[in-house]
Design brief:
The complex is a heterotrimer.
Chain A: H1 6-25, E1 31-35, E2 47-53, E3 56-63, H2 71-75, H3 80-87, H4 96-110, H5 116-145, H6 150-169, E4 178-179, E5 182-183, H7 191-214, H8 217-223, H9 231-237, H10 242-245, H11 253-256, H12 278-300, E6 321-329, E7 332-340, E8 348-352, H13 354-360, H14 362-365, H15 371-381, H16 385-389
Antiparallel strand pairs in A: 1-2, 2-3, 4-5, 6-7, 7-8
Helix pairs in contact in A: 3-4, 5-6, 5-7, 5-12, 5-15, 6-7, 7-12, 12-15
Chain B: H1 26-39, E1 43-49, E2 53-58, H2 63-73, E3 78-86, E4 121-128, E5 135-142, E6 148-150, H3 159-170, E7 173-175, H4 201-205, H5 222-239
Parallel strand pairs in B: 2-5, 6-7
Antiparallel strand pairs in B: 1-2, 3-4, 4-5
Chain C: H1 2-7, H2 10-44, H3 60-69, H4 81-99, H5 116-124, H6 126-137, H7 141-172, H8 177-186, H9 199-202, H10 204-217, H11 229-232, H12 243-268, H13 290-315, H14 321-349
Helix pairs in contact in C: 2-12, 2-13, 4-5, 4-6, 4-12, 6-7, 7-10, 7-14, 8-12, 10-12, 12-13
The chains are: A alpha+beta, B alpha/beta, C mainly alpha.
Chain lengths: ~400, ~240, ~350
């Protein structure tokens, strides 16, 4: 320790006192913690900046953009059929579901409707991608909370679904199967029976997860009452999918709008939950997955024969106009606002992705919770980075 | 329980029938009338596609008031999204220009879409009625010289992030939003990428692979490469 | 055999004790890692686990040890280097100190303290220091959070552990671990000699509380807030790599083994089987071969208890630390206190 002169000592003490007073006035006693962008918990490169007071969050805010690929600009230099390759990669776990709203918007502008067989197969593949997506969510939910076993069951059972998608479309993760006017190919032989068998396995998987994870007292105490989103806040922020239904809003885009897809040909139920907490969101997704398997089973029995592609010109030029189509994707409401100028490619595509709205609520939601609850809430809101960042 | 479909609508989607019977969309027409009435002066234009969707355009200085009326009086309480459209066609076409040829001059006259428009850029939002599940797209013109509209965060809290993204992508200022940080782009990024005069840099840096041969093949097969260039150019003029 | 050993000079005996201690700690650690972490966890998760290194992956642990040993020794720039390096050693040393008091046979023990239980409980708290200073000295906010959580949790769960063991001590009437083993193997329950008097039956609640407290002391799920992989990356171990991480890793499983050994001594009868099976009446009667079979019996009982610990670890999600603290202070400690009261009353009455 150096010996400071009297004057220097006094000024040092005075500056310390000033700092202390400043610290008292601002409440900057807390610690700023960066969760991510590299972190085992976040589903990708999401960065959450949290100001902590001990273990409690004073404020937290996600900083997105680590995966921004500029899709809306890229669509402007593509032709309409090329956009499906781009769009597959937005929500990469349930990727067939991303293509569908865009294709439907283009078909709407062209005035073309896919033949019924194609509509059936589209709906079945859509539901399969939902099952693939949400079964990973159910496994990952355990890992976020510390239960390391369910995720392996989830991956094992998800492999069956991915094999199905691969045998039908050629791609496990990025099928790129939808075309304007129908589908690229017909189904392979034996696919329908195999799908039925896989749906049985998925149902038993859902039962297993319900027993193993949802019935667990620790899981319940970690998720009940955490991250409650009231109904009007959910509507204001534009939450969608299971997040909205878990807050008690009875709204499912498969049932509540008419699109050239065949969800109305199957008899299924929309699940809601009044609580709006993390448990409700997880529970609603579990029930929806089971419901999806039932939809697939019913539709499999009713696929009509016929062509899978309508008569569309070889070089597709979509007439001038604007169209908005949104569907109930695995993550929520995904929609495309397509502006066309009669060209080979779109003039502007606005991609409305579900996770963007779902995560925009986190600054409001994460105030006053504990650090472990951040992970629980993010896990229950369920986002994919590609969906947030596009 | 059989799923219910929206009531009071007559739909006709397929174009397979030769004679298209006129479709009547009572619900949307009534909604449009009510909106026109309540918005009054602020209402500028509209476009109704029966059985499909409704677009309206409102005056720029009454943006906040109009959206508030839509939320409060017409129960459009669900916030879909907020974004902008730049109606100027891109001077770079689709980025398929051959860098060895002089850049073609393209027509950049501004033509707006549904519900008209007087300016180059428009902000548009999508609102949905959570009870009847009917949606509406509301557009508003944004001045060319210093683009700005009022911010909607006091009405819809979810507009926060959407406005930040629109600001960084288009350069539109949202008055009343005091935290217009960049959403996706780095802090020091210059320019507004989604504007049409901002080129897609990937196509500037490396020419579009579809041009195939830009230089003559080694060995002097100049006729071959000229053929390829000619076919590529004809495709290009087809497209733009 | 004691006659043989008595002829070995003192330094030789000490050397043998050190070697024995190393074997007693590292052999269970290695077996636990292979059987439970590599194989049991994999089978529970419907996969096979390591299969390449050696037959059925048995050499995997050696491969991993080799891998960690040859890694670069990284100390973060702003970390307090001296304390950073000390922390893993403290954790492992407390395990070695703990094993010296565990009896493996009638004459196969390292030390025979009269206050063995007291010593064991005291020494087991030293690892808390190691974890705390690991968290602090890493100059990493995640480690700090993990270290602070560990401090609160480990101290909170020390109490139920001590109180649960009190019941056993009251029942046995001694703190000497060897005498506790003998008491269990020579006693009788319900008038039947053949099953001895394992305290797991008469001190059932104490056993449950002790097992829960061990689960928390080892920071295993559901009490693994300090590590909490999905939030804190690796908690207090985040900045450790190479052989320092190896020491933490071995320490974790070695401590699991040693705690299980202590639990089997206190509740399951330790190295012995009921003496009436062989007609022995006191520890001096016990045959010499028990010195070799005793460790094997102890090993089996230890593996059984570790199986339970690991099974729970792989199945349950983790408790949040305020729930964890509430569980300890409002749940376990009152039950443990009642257990002591009832034991004391019954001991006096009967």
């Amino acid at each position: 320790m150096t010996m400071l002169g009297d004057r220097q000592q006094l000024s040092y003490i005075a500056s310390q006192a000033a700092d202390a007073r400043l610290n008292l006035e601002l409440e900057t006693e807390g610690m700023t913690l960066n969760i991510g962008p590299q972190h085992p918990a976040t589903h990708g490169t999401l960065r959450i900046i949290a100001r902590l007071d001990g273990e409690q969050v004073v404020w937290a805010e996600p900083a997105c953009g680590y995966m921004h690929r500029g899709y809306e600009k890229l669509t402007e230099v593509r032709t309409f059929p090329q956009v499906t390759t781009l769009v597959n990669r937005i929500d990469w776990l349930g990727s067939f579901a991303n293509e569908v709203p865009f294709i439907l918007a283009a078909e709407k502008l062209m005035g073309v409707e896919a033949p019924t067989r194609a509509q059936y197969i589209r709906t079945i593949l859509f539901e399969l991608s939902r099952i693939a997506n949400v079964s990973l969510f159910l496994g990952d939910l355990g890992v976020q909370l510390g239960a390391i076993t369910p995720v392996f069951l989830a991956f094992r059972d998800r492999e069956y679904v991915l094999n199905l998608i691969e045998s039908a479309t050629g791609g496990r993760f990025h099928p790129n199967f939808d075309r304007i006017g129908g589908l690229k190919d017909d189904l392979p032989a034996g696919w329908i029976d195999e799908t039925r068998a896989v749906m049985k396995k998925l149902r038993s998987f859902c039962d297993q997860i319900e027993d193993l994870l949802f019935g667990n007292e620790i899981f319940q105490s970690r998720t009940r009452g955490i991250g409650v989103i009231p109904r009007d806040v959910a509507l204001q922020y534009g939450l969608s999918g299971a997040n909205l239904r878990a807050s008690g809003v009875d709204w499912d885009l498969r049932r509540d709008q008419t699109l050239p897809m065949v969800w109305d040909k199957a008899d299924w139920k929309v699940w809601t939950h009044p609580d709006g907490d993390s448990f409700a969101r997880c529970w609603v997704r579990l029930q929806e997955t089971r419901e999806s398997t039932k939809i697939v089973d019913q539709l499999l029995g009713a696929i009509p024969s016929g062509p899978v592609m309508a008569k569309v010109p070889k070089i597709i030029k979509v007439p001038e106009g604007e169209a908005w189509v949104s569907t109930e994707n695995p993550l929520g409401e995904m929609g495309y606002y397509v502006v066309s100028r009669g060209d080979l490619g779109p003039f502007r595509v606005k991609i409305r992705s579900a996770s963007f709205n779902n995560i925009s609520i986190t600054p409001w939601l994460l105030r006053g919770v504990y650090v472990p609850d951040i992970v629980t809430i993010l896990a229950s809101l369920y986002f994919i980075l590609g969906d947030i960042d596009r | 329980m059989p799923p219910k479909s929206p009531n009071g609508e007559v739909r006709q989607l397929s174009s397979s029938s030769e004679t298209t019977t006129p479709v009547v969309d009572l619900e949307r027409e009534q909604m449009l009338e009510a909106i026109e009435l309540s918005l009054g002066d602020a209402f500028v234009d509209s476009h109704l596609k029966p059985g499909d969707d409704l677009w309206i355009r409102v005056r720029t200085d009454s943006w906040l008031g109009s959206v508030q009326k839509l939320r409060d009086h017409h129960s459009f309480d669900y916030f879909g999204f907020l974004s902008a459209i730049d109606w100027m066609p891109s001077p770079y076409g689709r980025g398929e220009d051959d860098p060895t040829e002089p850049a073609p001059v393209r027509d950049t006259t501004i033509r707006s879409g549904y519900a008209g428009g007087d300016t180059r850029m428009q902000v548009f939002i999508r609102l949905v009625n959570s009870k009847t599940h009917l949606g509406i797209t509301v557009k508003v013109d944004v001045a060319d010289s210093s683009p700005s509209v009022e911010s909607l965060i006091t009405i819809f809290a979810g507009a926060n992030w959407h406005e930040r993204e629109t600001h960084e992508m288009f350069g539109i200022d949202f008055v009343g939003h005091n935290d217009l940080r960049n959403m996706y782009l780095p802090v020091d990024f210059e320019g507004h990428p989604l504007r049409k005069d901002f080129p897609l840099l990937a196509r500037m840096v490396k020419p579009w692979p579809g041009i195939v041969d830009v230089e003559p093949l080694p060995g002097g097969d100049e006729e071959d490469s000229a053929e390829v260039k000619a076919s590529a150019q004809s495709k290009d003029s087809d497209a733009s | 055999m004691i006659a043989l050993l008595a002829e070995v000079p003192y330094w030789g005996q000490s050397l043998l004790r050190v070697l024995g201690g190393l074997v007693a700690v590292l052999l269970p650690a290695g077996t636990i890692v292979y059987v439970f972490l590599f194989k049991m966890m994999s089978f529970m998760q419907s996969r096979l686990g390591p299969m390449e290194a050696g037959p059925y992956g048995s050499m995997q642990l050696f491969a991993e040890v080799g891998k960690w040993l040859q890694k670069e020794d990284i100390v973060p720039d702003r970390a307090d280097a001296r304390i950073f390096k000390m922390a893993p050693v403290i954790v492992l040393v407390s395990t070695f100190l703990l094993v010296v008091v565990v009896p493996f046979g009638p004459e196969a023990w390292f030390t025979d303290f009269e206050t063995g239980v007291f010593y064991a409980l005291a020494v087991s708290s030293i690892s808390v220091l190691g974890i705390l200073i690991a968290g602090w000295s890493s100059a990493n906010k995640y480690s700090l959070l993990g270290g602070l959580r560990a401090a609160g949790q480990l101290i909170a769960y020390e109490l139920p552990m001590v109180l649960a063991v009190m019941g056993v001590v009251i029942q046995a009437g001694t703190m000497n671990l060897q005498k506790i083993v003998v008491a269990q193997n020579t006693g009788s329950m319900f008038g039947i000699d053949a099953i001895g008097h394992p305290y797991v039956i008469s001190q059932f609640f104490g056993f449950i509380i002790f097992m829960i407290a061990i689960q928390a002391e080892l920071t295993q799920a559901p009490f693994d807030m300090p590590i909490a992989e999905s939030e804190l990356v690796s908690g207090y171990m985040t900045e450790y790599s190479g052989f320092r991480f190896l020491i933490f890793f071995i320490g974790e499983f070695a401590t699991a083994g040693v705690f299980a050994m202590i639990a089997s001594v206190l509740f399951l009868g330790g190295w012995g089987v009921p003496f009436t099976w062989f007609g022995w009446t006191s520890v001096d009667d016990v045959a010499n071969w028990m010195n070799f079979v005793g460790p094997l019996i102890m090993f089996t009982k230890m593996m059984l208890l570790v199986f339970i610990i690991m099974w729970i670890r792989f199945s349950y999600p983790r408790l949040r630390e305020d729930q964890l603290q509430r569980f300890a202070w409002k749940g376990l400690i009152p039950v443990a206190l009642i257990n002591i009261m009832v034991t004391a009353i019954l001991k006096v009455v009967f």
